[in-house]
Predict the 3D structure of the following.
Amino acid sequence: MKTKTDTPSKFRFPILFIAMLAVVAIASLINARLSGLGPLSVVVGIATAAAGLFVYTHLSRRLERRPSVPELDRTEALPGLLRGAAIGTGAFVTTMLFIGLFGGWGHFASGSFWGFLTSVGVMASAAVNEELLFRGVIFRITQNRFGTWIAVTLSAVLFGGSHLLNTGATLWGAFAIAIEAGVTLAICYAATRSLWLPIGFHFAWNLVESGVFGTTVSGATGTAHGLLTTTLSGPALLTGGSFGPEASLIAVLVCLAPIAYFLRKIKRYNLIVRRSAAQS
């Protein structure tokens, strides 16, 4: 029976989407303004990530009338984050090794430990809040309504398209990140029904990219704060150009491996949500 406090079902997704979009925007603004605080940047980043988790959990329960939020099950947090971080680290390091193998390494110089700490905070905030928005809201709800494949396509296109707003963005870069992150992270979520593994993957990939190698992340200038300062040289298809290594063809090919692995798991355990079943 509907009560006066119930939110009509047609408004639940828009409200949750707009709320999490606002969280992403506000967190990005706060992290950008306070990025020069060294160790405090870590605190700011973790705080904005925690705020996103609170807003998502609270609104999911209230708007969707769910007694719990299983995709953020605390018992799965540590193993999911560690597993995701291992995969994300391995994928990006492999990408850089292949770029170097094909002659894409230009120059390495020492970077800044404080820059690394800044990257830890910024990337923790971005990974958590972007995963809550794109996988927790857009993918999860679309999958429940229209099935897995429509949800993968929609969330990947929107995720790639959102990166066109960055200063060094390119159409190829947006397409590449739609595949290597949009599709990969959606498939990771579909296979685990948990946001922790995609968050760990997302965080580790970005942290190694910026906080370790000191390369541009997703075409966003000013994100290269790392233990190293890495200059890549060669054709954009190899190095990613102004967008950063994520726009390298190698990065796309490397990410096909986790996509294939988790797709196999989805099919083995029959985790695909069919459109007909989702609409019934």
